[in-house]
């Protein structure tokens, strides 16, 4: 497998993301013919996706390369702190709807599993596979792949306009997370902050996972794109710092 990855990193990245499909739960909803999936089913489905990422990381021997072996220090966490603002803004905008304790706990685990699976796959496996092509290119390509994967929501009944916005949003989020991921060398804070973002969104929707079937307003399109674009710029700035700091070490090892 490693030989195929080294020879065809882009093809490999497209394949593993296509198999994963970050919005597979939406497809499950269509297949089940239900307006709301039961929480145990969601947890089981997401656990299977987490297992898929674990198998990939183990099969490739990339746990350390993907950022899971780095110790957490305040300096490393600090680079991720701007991401705390996004779930706070979501809570301020939508609030937190009430739900029974079991549902809240269940969706907490669900969000954590999403954080692990998506970060482990995109900023772990895919970013590592593309890294030999250059850090900046790897971050950009892995983020574009992540964004394109969200376009499958159109097939699941989601409004095309909302889906395109989601794809752009996901691409910017990918760049925003790739920066601190490479700059700090650890992926663990990315998993936590990704989970917080998803949990705040789920909580604001009343602890359900609805599909956006109605067209979104211009404001609903512009605001998330503008906000995540700022995070993409921040991630790009950290990527440039990462490249600059890596170059002297590369010359010393030459």
The H/E string reads: HHHHHHHHHHH
Question: Uncertain runs with pLDDT below 50, 5 residues or more?
Answer: 29-35
Number of strand elements: 0
Distance from first to last alpha carbon: 28 Å
What is the count of helical runs? 11
| Helix content bin | over 70%
Report the sheet with the most strands, covering strand number, pairing sense and barrel closure. none
**Gross geometry:** globular
Structural class, from secondary structure content? Answer: mainly alpha
In angstroms, what is the radius of gyration? 18 Å
Counting structural domains, the number is 1
Quaternary class: single chain
Overall residue-averaged pLDDT value: 86
- Beta-strand residue percentage: under 5%
Would you give an account of this structure?
With 254 residues, this protein is mainly α. It has one domain (20-244). Helix content is 74%, strand content 0%. It is built from eleven helices and no strands. It has helices spanning 2-7, 9-20, 24-32, 39-60, 74-78, 85-94, 101-130, 135-149, 160-184, 188-204, 218-253. It is globular, with a radius of gyration of 18 Å. Mean pLDDT is 86; it is low at 29-35.
In brief, what are we looking at here?
By secondary structure, the chain is mainly α. The protein contains eleven helices and no strands.
Name the features.
single chain; 254 residues; mainly alpha
List the helices and strands and how they pair.
Layout lengths: L1 H6 L1 H12 L3 H9 L6 H22 L13 H5 L6 H10 L6 H30 L4 H15 L10 H25 L3 H17 L13 H36 L1
Helix pairs in contact: 2-7, 2-8, 4-7, 6-10, 7-8, 7-10, 8-9, 9-11
